[in-house]
Sequence to fold (156 residues):
Amino acid sequence: MENLQEEKTISFFRFEDLRIYAKATDYSAWLVANLGTPTNEKQKNLIDSFCRSSYDIALNIAEGSSRNKSQFEHCLKISKTAIRECIVFTTISKSLGLLDDECYERSREYLMELTRMIGALIISLQRGGRRRDENESDTESVSEEPDALDSIDTNF
Fold:
């Protein structure tokens, strides 16, 4: 019998392999599909700002993934700021009738999951840096890796 192994295709853009990036883009697409229709200019501005914050989650993950670990960590923290903005927009959108109760809860679930995933990735980056520091001798300088994704678990 032939042993069939599924080969994992690695994307040209490595951030596309991150589950956290896929979850962030899923949230943005879900949000656009589930936000109600604005009835005035203020609601339209709210929806535009809400969507922009949801896009910023994935955009910062993508941007940070091409940088060194400390810069990636910084971009992930900016993504967490965008998540908190989305929590505020979720609450306001519900109170204005742009999100029903079910969508309100689903939005919060998405955002909580994204927060946990980003927190875990930040911890993974920090641990990886500490392990490398501990393995370096006192005379060697610690340099940050050019591609942070090469040395971390990409299951986030």
Q: What stands out?
A: The two ends are 35 Å apart (CA to CA). The helical segments are 19-34, 41-65, 69-95, 101-135. The first helix runs from residue 19 to 34.
